[in-house]
Amino acid sequence: EEQTFRLGGSATAIEEFLLPVLAGRQSSESAARYAVEVISDDAVERRLHDLTLDFGVTTATAISRPLQMKEIGAWRLKLWVPRDLFQAGAQAIQAFQQKKLPLVLPVQELPTLNHEMLRGYKARVICETFSQARTILEKHRAATFLPDFLKPRGSATEFLALRIPPIAALVFQFQLAWNPRLLRLNPHAGRQRDWLAAALSAQLRAN
Prior knowledge:
Layout: E1 4-9, H1 11-23, E2 33-38, H2 41-50, E3 55-58, E4 68-75, E5 77-82, H3 89-97, E6 103-106, E7 125-127, H4 130-137, E8 143-147, E9 159-162, H5 165-168, E10 172-178, H6 180-185, H7 189-206
Parallel strand pairs: 1-2, 1-3, 6-7, 6-8
Antiparallel strand pairs: 3-10, 4-10, 5-8, 5-9
Helix pairs in contact: 1-7
């Protein structure tokens, strides 16, 4: 019997992990279909409770009961700076610390927006996602923070990849979340959960 599973998460989680995993699955392996949509961590939690979402990829560190989560993988942030702006990493870091580095902030996906080093920073551009921030970075006019699994396209020599110590020390997690009630209602959901968790974890390690 063909079933449709509803999956949600951030734009970056979907583009970098969920869609490649789904595209790589052979139709002979599963009769399932998938409906994927970009939603926030808060919406993932709310809709899992409502059972209007079957599985969500979230960066939340905790989730309300009875929802459950399984860790997919960890990541950190790097500051990417076009060499057109600074040739030396020390100069770029100093400019950032002085809040003078032209910066792009992807406000929906950057988990450190409230960090003291970013508080009050007047960004050159405010956007929503890491993917959008990377596009602006590649125009060589502003720097941005990207997860360590995401890099600017093109020549790596055109950019500095810097670790800002207080921010680089922070570790973030992608988690697969679900409502255990779904598993009781749908006997096929448990296999989907196990496959998604393993496949997404492998995709994150491969990036």
